């Protein structure tokens, strides 16, 4: 509940109201679109009602302060009647009515001096940790009690920022003519080879969970030219690190006629625009969770894979051309750049069958990095079906499984390119979170399937 | 490509350009954000370049008209040189340059008189059907060649409308204070009993694909109050009808403190707003695909289950209280209402364990219908954990499997309610499509897993 809303008094006489049958008292909930209700003019002394859950209680000799949370906004209640106070426990859901007072000391710029309190949903057990604690309990204890953990002010802010980020990304892509699509998550064949897939039985057939919308988004450039999807992807990666999940949310973009440079320009604009948007819409939240202020240079740097192994060689880490860059290599180079940057022109042998070669050695490809963390991977794609067939064979993949996918390539597939970007990883970078599990509502890894 | 865009001439001298290496000719693609490029002032005779795929060719004696599609917009090329024309085949991707001419006869209000054509990606096989045919081939043939099928003008329009619809739904929910979330699709226990679930192996554990975000969205009302998600749901329904998919896209909404009436009011506003938005943003597309003009009354009608079985009884269809309404019943009643409407107060025995009873017989629940088609189902939820446990036992469900889900209910779960809405079904209603497979990009059913 923000002061903006309180400054628009509800014309409650015209709103159909429902008696709150949950609490069977004089409180009324109006049509649910605003919970804080102020009667008459918004000014000191106006009558106000509110419902929410108790974040904290600070008792003083003659007066107590209760912070309640109403749709992710904190509102301060002032209570000077100990009889009222004794019903209020941290984590309970309460309704309160009283009079409004403007004050710069309270969150949102006002407080409610309470003369009536009703408990709507009482906390029934002692929670395993205090949501206001400064010493965070272990992440496993918190994830076991995730809904409670999400009540922590940090998490209310973090997932509000997450939604603002996703909204901003969509708006940017709409503005560039991209069509939002949904592709199937149950698929018949692996998009990048058979590794890391969850198999399932689809009626009487073998199927898999999609590890990316790769093949579908490529096909869709044929009718729609520019498409994007934000949805779940699934990777059966039994390794347990701070930056991998078994189920995560991916931004997938694909566009006809886009070159590698076009794609990197698009990402450059997208990241720049997202950061700018969320620091406009949610700066108070970002400050509260101590998000790093990420500066962006005029244009994100681009280094070829070759340049990077040269640099690493000069810094006592010898990499043979064609070998992948390891965690330690990326840490070293990433701390040198200390920013977002692209690694381009990856060797052919490190890339999947659908990536367009630039010459006999390297590809039209890129990874977007923040320091040592890979945020996005993309490039131009092969659009000639005979080359795709050849590449599938060379990669040891069964061409027959890709039969359906290859069909459209014979009917005028445009040259195209695209990228996938990990939403959780981008959010880690933006918020400074050090464990990817913190930025997923219900993370999934090799050990965790519940809640 | 719309005339708006052509009327904003590209200041191409300041845009970094990339030689189009795919076609290795004098065509240039600029940074990919606009494909139609007009040099200098936009006026008759201005030089123009365009890339896209060939929708249709109409040859006349001295001049031919080629419609090409550029980012889902049709542009007419005029060609009076038979040498140029002979390279052009339907479904190929071409580039063309020439001079601009304004004319009300062409789509978008202009045409390009072509003096140079290059083939970018040539159609390599005769397609199994003509995308401009008036006699549609069977849906199975079309789905087997879905990317080609999606090139049909009808589908370009339909999936553009779909994206506009989803965008409008999100904007409406943002405006009502709802937070967009993503919940896991791999889950440990069934949300509504064990039926109709796809099982999978999650590393060494048994898991399922989520048939709805039900339990997660309920939990999330505790920290966030109002949440929504638009994402995939999975139902192992082997029956093959015109309105069921095994994987579909669901809008899921859940809100603390919302009563049944609040929820129906929210849906009423959401449907009204969506229809109004898409008829504003996409009326030309809706007219082209012959979408029905759905009128909406001042307020959507609400009928109780009891009223409906009474009405059916008077119309020679006897239903015993507690029996579900069948297809024939809904067709009869639906044709009587002939509009959107709600069926409320369903019997307890027809509803899952988490639905709030109103009395000993019926629940605070509703279905949103359009004629005989169920679009949405929702209601108030039980928020008392001891009642939930009792209901689980009564439904014969293993309480132990819901152990993690029940945890938050002890820590002050607010009263809440919500609904799920089938995006494909809403789109069927809006567009008048008679088979749900038409409105899913890559439909999944008991017989179809590819492409």
Features:
homodimer; five-stranded mixed barrel; 19 strands; OB fold (Dihydrolipoamide Acetyltransferase, E2P); BirA Bifunctional Protein, domain 2; 13 helices; 451 residues
Structural description of this entry:
The structure is a homodimer of 451-residue chains. With 451 residues, chain A is an alpha+beta fold. Chain A has two domains: 3-121, OB fold (Dihydrolipoamide Acetyltransferase, E2P); 147-439, Bira Bifunctional Protein, Domain 2 (BirA Bifunctional Protein, domain 2, 2-Layer Sandwich), CATH 3.30.930.10. Chain A has 13 helices and 19 strands. The first copy, chain A, has helices spanning 3-6, 82-85, 139-144, 146-149, 153-175, 214-224, 260-281, 283-288, 305-314, 327-337, 385-394, 403-406, 423-431; strands at 18-19, 28-29, 37-38, 47-59, 64-70, 73-79, 93-102, 110-121, 179-180, 186-187, 199-202, 205-209, 226-234, 247-256, 301-304, 340-344, 365-370, 373-380, 416-422. Chain A has an eight-stranded mixed beta sheet with strand order 9-13-14-19-18-17-16-15, with helices on both faces. In chain A, strand 3 (37-38) and strand 4 (47-59) form a beta hairpin. The longest helix of chain A has 23 residues, at 153-175. The model of chain A is unreliable at 1-35 (pLDDT under 50). Chains A and B meet through strand 4, helix 4, helix 5, strand 9 and strand 10 of A and strand 4, helix 4, helix 5, strand 9 and strand 10 of B.
């Amino acid at each position: 509940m923000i002061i903006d809303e309180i400054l628009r008094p509800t014309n409650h006489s015209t709103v159909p109201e429902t008696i709150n049958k949950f609490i069977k008292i004089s409180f009324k909930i109006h049509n649910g679109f605003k919970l804080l209700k102020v009667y008459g003019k918004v000014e000191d002394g106006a009558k106000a009602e509110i419902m929410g859950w108790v974040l904290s209680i600070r008792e003083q000799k003659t007066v107590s302060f209760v912070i309640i949370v109403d749709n992710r906004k904190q509102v301060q209640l002032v209570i000077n009647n100990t009889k009222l106070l004794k019903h209020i426990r941290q984590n309970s859901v309460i309704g309160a009515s009283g009079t409004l007072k403007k004050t710069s000391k309270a969150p949102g710029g006002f407080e409610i001096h309470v003369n009536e309190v009703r408990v709507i949903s009482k906390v029934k057990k002692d929670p395993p940790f205090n949501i206001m604690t400064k010493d965070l309990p272990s992440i496993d204890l918190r994830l076991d009690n995730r809904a409670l953990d999400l009540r922590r002010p940090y998490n209310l802010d973090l997932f509000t920022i997450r939604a603002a980020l996703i909204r901003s990304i969509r708006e940017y892509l709409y503005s560039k003519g991209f069509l939002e699509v949904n592709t199937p998550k149950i698929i018949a064949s692996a998009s990048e080879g058979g590794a890391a897939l969850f198999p399932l039985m689809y009626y009487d057939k073998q199927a898999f969970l999609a590890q990316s919308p790769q093949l579908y988004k490529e096909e869709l450039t044929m009718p729609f030219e520019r498409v994007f999807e934000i949805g779940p992807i699934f990777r059966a990666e039994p390794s347990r690190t701070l930056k991998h999940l078994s189920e995560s949310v991916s931004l997938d973009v694909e566009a006809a006629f886009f070159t590698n440079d076009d794609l990197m320009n698009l990402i450059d604009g997208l990241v720049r625009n997202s950061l700018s948007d969320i620091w406009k819409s949610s700066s108070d939240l970002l400050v509260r969770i101590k998000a790093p202020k990420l500066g962006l240079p005029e244009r994100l740097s681009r280094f070829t894979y070759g340049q990077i192994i040269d640099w690493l060689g000069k810094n006592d880490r010898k990499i043979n051309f064609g070998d992948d860059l390891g965690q330690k290599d990326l840490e070293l180079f990433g701390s040198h750049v200390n920013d977002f940057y692209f690694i381009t022109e990856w060797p052919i042998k490190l890339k999947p069958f659908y990536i367009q070669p630039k010459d006999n050695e390297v590809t039209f490809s890129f990874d977007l990095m923040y320091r040592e963390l890979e945020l996005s991977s993309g490039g131009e794609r092969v659009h000639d079906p005979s080359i795709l067939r050849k590449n599938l064979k060379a990669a040891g993949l069964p061409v027959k499984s890709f039969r359906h996918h290859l069909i459209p390539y014979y009917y005028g597939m445009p040259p195209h390119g695209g990228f996938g970007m990990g939403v959780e990883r981008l959010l880690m970078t933006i918020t400074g979170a050090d464990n990817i599990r913190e930025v997923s509502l219900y993370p999934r890894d090799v050990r965790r399937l519940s809640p």
